[in-house]
Amino acid sequence: MKTNLDEILSLFDEGLISEIIDGPIDSALLKVIPVSEQVKDHRSFNRLIASFIQNIRRPAGPSHPEEDSEAMEEALWFIRNYYSESGDDSYDIALADALDDESCGVEFVLERIGEKLKEIERQRYISWVTTSHIDPSDWKLRVSLAEEIFRRFGKYLPPNIVSRKPAMYACYLEKLLDLVISS
Fold first, then answer.
1. What share of the chain is helix, strand, coil (3-state, %, to 5)?
2. 166: which residues sit within 8 A by CB, 6+ positions away?
3. 3-state SS class at 66
4. How far, in Å, are 1, 58, 72 from residue 66 at the CA level?
5. 169 vs 130: CA distance, rounded Å
6. What is the tens place of the pLDDT at every residue in 71-112?
7. Which helix (H) or strand (E) holds 71?
8. Domain residues of the chain, as ranges?
């Protein structure tokens, strides 16, 4: 008999996740890499990363000026927040990396952005699956799922988790599922 947990786990199939998350990002990357050689300054860099984001969000068809502006804002925000751990200098670091053809180059920057985007989108997907399939107010269901996870996957979970009662993790099902998926 297929359980609610089975349904949830089927949505975490690596092939499915790769198709819906990695595929569009990889396709967008393939579209912008050929023009990446045209990056000579911050303006051309900004246009390229905006084009990359836009190709992810809208893979086919022409864009509109508002979409170009939104893609630029999203790309710049993303770089400032995720490209480097140095925070405020992230944009400058990304631009310097992009303009440095000898050690990094634009392709390196785009691939790094793409990998971080995949990581973020995967987390968002996991969150969407759990919140759309598990009623947060159904405590019995949450406890039941935690117990089933412990029963079926306990040997793959860290000892400090399995040493406690499953009910203690009913509020942390997303994290528990993430542990199961990554093991």
1. 80, 0, 20
2. 143, 146, 147, 149, 150
3. helix
4. 50, 13, 10
5. 14
6. 889 889 989 888 887 767 899 999 999 998 887 888 899 999
7. helix 65-78
8. 13-133, 135-183
